[in-house]
Amino acid sequence: MIPIQRLDLPEVVTARMKVLTDRIALRDAASGARKSYADNLWKHEDHVKRGLRAVLVEMATGVLGDCMYCGGFTATDIEHFEPREHDALKTFLWSNHLLVCGPCNSTYKRAWWECDEDREPLLIDPTRDNPFDHLWLNLRECRYLGTTDKGRTTIEVLGLNLPERRLVAGRKKARLKIRTMLMGWCWARQHGDTDRERDALDVLKEQSFVDVWQAMLRQVELPGAALVMNDEPPEILSLLRNEELRAATLIEFPLQPTQAESV
């Protein structure tokens, strides 16, 4: 999981979502009428959902849009971070929408929702939280460790380390691919092949399991990196510290705020 920059929606979509939210608010919540009405609107508002999906795909990594939770598979579903079952008023709230894969949405998270005593969600929202504040990726095993309650809960709820999800295996393959891309970028840079250099950068930034790349960039700068990453060849560690490469591909947090933060 990596930080995701939330972009602004087209004004026409934002305006329509406000109208729909106002209509939902008129329904009684206690009787279940509000949830039922919100579900019906969500089912039939195809134009709104197309507008949402277009911006979410632009926000996501990958050509087709990778899952904002696991990062390993093409995202197919518009996810309500806080489920409609918990608060139907957030059905058309832009800051409540993510783009995720079917398994993350329908098999693992589903309608799960818990908060801590401060009413802070116990699941990472990559558009609001820095996942690296809560998760540590063991690069040797390519398994996640939670460094906070939010991180540990996220791993458990989404099954980020479960063998049947094949995410660990995918991260391991991504790490091997990263080594190849790094050496290709280095060769292209030394030989003045700007097209190949740009292609290598694009792959590093946009490949599936890009969380592996981002974790490598961060961990190589930590004290003791040579020990933690001692299975990496010295030339790879040197490239990971290259300022030009880091400037072109490292995702910093906090991300630049947009108007979407208040929508």
Structure description:
This protein has helices at residues 11-25, 33-44, 46-59, 102-109, 149-158, 167-190, 194-206, 210-219, 225-228, 234-240, 243-249, and strands at 77-80, 97-100, 135-138, 143-146. The protein is mainly alpha-helical and 263 residues long. It has a domain at 166-249. The strands form 2 sheets. A two-stranded antiparallel ribbon has the order 1-2. A two-stranded antiparallel ribbon has the order 3-4. α6 packs across α8 (210-219). The two termini are 24 Å apart.
What share of the residues lie within helices? 40-55%
Shape: elongated
Proportion of residues in extended strands: 5-15%
Distance, first to last CA: 24 Å
SSE pattern, N- to C-terminal: HHHEEHEEHHHHHHH
Unreliable stretches: none
Number of strands: 4
Structural class: mainly alpha
Number of helices: 11
Q: Name the strands of the widest sheet in spatial order.
A: 1-2
Main sheet overview: 2 strands, antiparallel
Average predicted confidence as pLDDT: 93
How are the SSEs ordered, and which strands pair?
Layout: H1 11-25, H2 33-44, H3 46-59, E1 77-80, E2 97-100, H4 102-109, E3 135-138, E4 143-146, H5 149-158, H6 167-190, H7 194-206, H8 210-219, H9 225-228, H10 234-240, H11 243-249
What does this entry show, briefly?
The chain has 263 residues and is mainly alpha-helical.
Task: List its traits.
elongated; mainly alpha; two-stranded antiparallel ribbon; 263 residues; 11 helices
